[in-house]
Amino acid sequence: MAKAPLLVIAAGGTGGHMFPAQALAEAMLRKGWRVKLSTDARGARYTGGFPHVVEVEQIASATFARGGVLAKLAVPFRILGGVIAAIFRMMRDKPALVVGFGGYPSIPAVSAAWILRRPRMLHEQNGVLGRVNQLFAKRVNAIACGTWPTELPAGVEGTFTGNPVRSTILERAGSGYIAPGDYPMSLLVMGGSQGARILSEVVPQAILNLPEQLRGYLRIAHQAREEDRNSVEVFYASHGIAAEVKPFFTDVPRRMSEAQLVISRAGASSVADIAIIGRPSILIPYAAATGDHQAANARGLVDADAAILIPESQLDADTLATQIETIFANPSAAHQMARAAHTCGRPDATERLVEMVETLADTGPKT
User: Fold this and answer.
1) β-strands 55-58, 97-100 pairing
2) What residue ranges in the chain does DSSP mark as E strands?
3) Is the pLDDT assigned to residue 194 strictly greater than 70?
4) Whole-model pTM?
5) Nearest of 85, 128, 126, 127 to residue 105 by alpha carbon
6) Residue 350, SS3?
7) Distance in angstroms (rounded) separating the CA atoms of residues 248 and 245
8) Does the N-terminal peptide bond of residue 149 adopt cis geometry, omega within 30 degrees of 0?
9) pLDDT at residue 139 greater than cutoff 70
């Protein structure tokens, strides 16, 4: 009996790469495929949500973004070692397709697929290609785009699929929205997969600047980096503000579906989740993002009047407090923002990506 076809998913160590990868893995398993995930130690932190039958292959991390001079000099050799190892594994496993979701851990698998002429494709979550996906854009057979339009190199075409979201997000797609009012309200603060320092510095003070009556109704769920967690908790507690502060929330789908407002970075996965569930949001794009891609990610929600965008350079407690109060003081407008956000969602993104995977795999190895 022939083995089921094998899909190799290669993804870097951030939630932005790992969550869409998880969505594809879940869908392909339901289609009867075998799935193997190649990631690094950072990405391995997100594998708890992957189905247990997915084989996780952890490779040595290699990035120029961290470490001293010697560590940076060693990166090319670590990557080369990873590519050689991936070539031997791929010669043994003969995957039907390799999909790279970006990040340095995707380099070995996608490189091996290119060298061995295995069918291969990329999924780019953001409106601007990440560094690794730029490297491979002209060396793959197809590029799926999560944000549209996506800036692509000359001569390269992309297919708009949308960003796949986890099944736990899809289960809450279009959840009923309870508009702001004189009752307990939830505010979800997300700074990307590991929090953001600027949000930990600005959001608590912005909450304190709100009118006392409004502040008394709020229940805050604030995602903060581990090193910022204590100071954020102390600030909220010392001012009598009800808040739960964690470096990572494992139940974001529930919290988001119960929230009256989401304050977030504009990472591709966060934007996709907000749109699928349908919630008003205040988005603060990460200013140092490659090609300002987070601003590109936010464009759809902002243009649909579903979100308010505050550039990081203009973010301060007074500005943020004003926007928060504006949303909470206008229940009908908040409700309209929620509906508008939901219209921006692509709940069929996973199905579109699956279709690309199956079509490309059926055509066999490519040059």
Assistant:
1) unpaired
2) 6-10, 34-39, 55-58, 97-100, 120-124, 142-145, 159-160, 185-190, 218-223, 243-246, 261-264, 281-283, 307-309
3) no
4) 0.84
5) 85
6) helix
7) 9
8) yes
9) yes
Smallest CA-to-CA distance from 222 within 214, 212, 231 is with 231
β-strand partners of 197: none
What gap in Å lies between CA 125 and CA 148, rounded to an integer? 10
- Dihedral angle computed from the Cα positions of residues 257, 252, 204 and 259, in that order, rounded to the nearest 10 degrees: 0
Write the single-letter amino acid at 367.
T
Contact (Cβ atoms closer than 8 angstroms) between residue 309 and residue 302: yes
Q: How many CA atoms lie within 13 A of 64 on its CB side?
A: 5
Q: Confidence class of residue 63 from pLDDT cuts 50, 70 and 90? A: low
Per-residue tokens: 158: 């992309």
Place of tokens 């061995």: 116
Distance of alpha carbon 124 from alpha carbon 151, whole angstroms: 10
Give the position of tokens 């010669």. 91
For residue 325, count other CB atoms closer than 10 A to its CB.
16
**Nearest CA to 140 among 164, 160, 156, 162?**
156
Residue in this structure with the two tokens 């891609």, named with its chain if needed: 293
pLDDT above 60: residue 81: yes
- Which one-letter DSSP state was computed for residue 5? P
Q: In one letter, which amino acid is 298?
A: A
Distance (Å, rounded) from C-alpha 291 to C-alpha 289?
6
